[in-house]
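call fold(seq) -> tokens
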Amino acid sequence: MTAASAMGNAIEWFDYGVYGYLAASIGNAFFPDNDATMKLLSTFGVLAVSFAVRPVGGMVFGPLGDKIGRQRVLVLTITLMSVSTAAIGLLPTYATIGAWAPVLLILCRLVQGFSTGGEYGGAATYMAECAPDRKRGFYGAFLEFGTLIGLIFGGLLATTMSLWVSQDTINAWAWRLPFLAALPLGAIGLYLRARLEDSPVFDELARHSETSKVPFRETMQHWRHILLLMGFVLLLNVADYGVLTYMPTYLNSVLKLSPLISGLLPVMVMIGMLAVIAPIGALTDRIGRKPALLTSCIGFIVLSVPMVMLMGTKNLVAIVVGLTVLGLLLVILLACIASTLPALFPTQVRYSAFAIGYNVSTSAFGGTTPLVVTALIAATHSNLMLGWYMTAAGLIALVPMLLIPETAGESLRGRRTPGRARATTPHARVSAATPH
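ret:
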């Protein structure tokens, strides 16, 4: 269950990691502009366009998962994700077919974005519904373990490649290899998911014929909690894409560090995050999700700009300290996602509500982060824009994090009516308040 759920997340973030690490080479291959900044803007613009269709994927796959089951949809999404990512490695370049090259790149990214729109909501929902109530934080953290594994693998693959072949060779053809690696990874994930049974929570509804008949309409009854989720995800995505996906480009293109250093430092921080994410998830099972979330949120508000200033000194130790602090704040958020957000919604619309709210927020603030920060730096000539952007996201997210209900220990089992956004049974109240 854990490996199958996390595998899709690993492939998704392997793709984003490779795309971020090889952004300059992708720009050279698909965009003819001689200005390096414009090539980066074009490359990150394609990434941002792919995020525009993620809410559409959420609106299609979320209700489908609430009607026919989580497992069937997860098999479909991992197949589409893997094929569309691998297809990028086969595309002809601008030098070969001209303007059709970026068009085909955009089409591949659109398919990837559409399938990803149903992937994370389904995986998080499935993980939450299968995990023991009192260990949901611990098991849920492994979903983001997949995120970090995917990014680390993508980053190491791109960085190692730069050690073995010249930059000219990477620009010419070697950039394709990491994308092609998505195909065997997807085959492994498909094998694991095809062997899964559906979650016991969904099966209970199906046995009693209480699955939602019109999940999209019923989902909209929970718009208040969807808005809270979107505010949470705003900070999550700005930090996620700022610290993990954009950082290699920031260190290399903005701070002018070597490609090797720019690639390895974020990977080292992510390896450290891997070591602590499960213990942090387990801690939230004992102390609750909200104390952890508020600690992270306030940390981003107070420390983002100072840490980016520290990295701006270009001192290696200072850069490591700045990245480590930002990585620690981020990993607290990551450890809480799968245990906190699915529990906000009843089973009948859990997949739909999570997928729609998550992907609308991700579309607006996730994939656009590298593009927006690159444009802000170009417009203001200030290297602190990444820090200020994360600070602003933290200030916005603080309100929903204060309002979000505590979900630690709450049971997701049982048949819950579509009109109720949160169970209030004595068991749920006791288990949420009792240390485990």
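The radius of gyration is 21 Å.
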